[in-house]
Design goal:
Strand content: 5-15%
Helix content: 40-55%
Number of helices: 6
Oligomer: single chain
Structural class: alpha+beta
């Protein structure tokens, strides 16, 4: 379809190394022979937040145009970052790190889901993800996600109102809850307990 319409597909593949529940699908660019896919990925999330380096893969004329733009725009990626990325990716421990990362994310996801089921029974999980860093929680009818986000913040819990992630009117109020940045599994459980208490207080104040 992209080729027929003269368009491009931008494949934002930042989560490729964050799988934790099954086989990761092949990237679209792997089967692109016409230069219609522009593949973007990053080492920031799977390696280290301070390793601000990514990669862009494309073919044909679009690649030449992007190469020219980058030369004009920022000239080059700093050499220390390039060497750090090369060292990380070529190390024998990289595959082991990715496996360990997947195991840790899978365990944290399960702990968070179990805590949600226990502490917030009126909410619904939109399925368990097989990759990534977040759970999506559908809130009970009548709950305002932005108000709940503020109430949770007052209790020391950082969650994201789901409404800002929908391109159109959301079908219901949602929260996006991250499970990667917590210090440990006990912090995830305590965070959900506080979130449940915030929801109870908010519902009582609106009744």
């Amino acid at each position: 379809m992209a080729r027929a319409s003269g368009a491009f597909v931008l494949e934002d593949d930042f989560a490729r190394h964050l799988g934790h529940g099954g086989a990761v699908p092949r990237p679209l660019v792997a089967d692109d022979r016409d230069g219609t896919v522009v593949h973007v990925t990053s080492l920031t999330k799977p390696a280290a937040p301070s390793l601000r380096i990514g990669a862009l893969v494309a073919r044909g004329p679009v690649m030449e145009r992007m190469r020219a733009v980058r030369l004009v725009d920022d000239f080059f990626v700093t050499r220390p970052l390039q060497e750090a990325a090369l060292e990380v990716l070529s190390s024998p421990s990289w595959d082991r790190h990715i496996r360990s990362l997947g195991t840790a994310l899978r365990e944290r996801c399960a702990v968070l889901a179990a805590a949600v089921a226990q502490e917030i029974p009126g909410a619904t999980l939109a399925g368990l993800p097989t990759g990534g860093l977040h759970l999506w929680l559908r809130l009970p009818s009548g709950v305002d996600d932005i108000a709940l986000t503020g109430a949770a913040r007052q209790r020391g819990v950082a969650v994201s109102a789901g409404s800002r992630y929908f391109a159109t009117e959301p079908p219901a109020a949602h929260l996006r809850i991250g499970f990667a940045a917590a210090a440990g599994q006990s912090e995830l459980t305590e965070g959900v307990r506080r979130l449940g208490a915030a929801l109870t207080d908010l519902s009582a104040s609106e009744a």
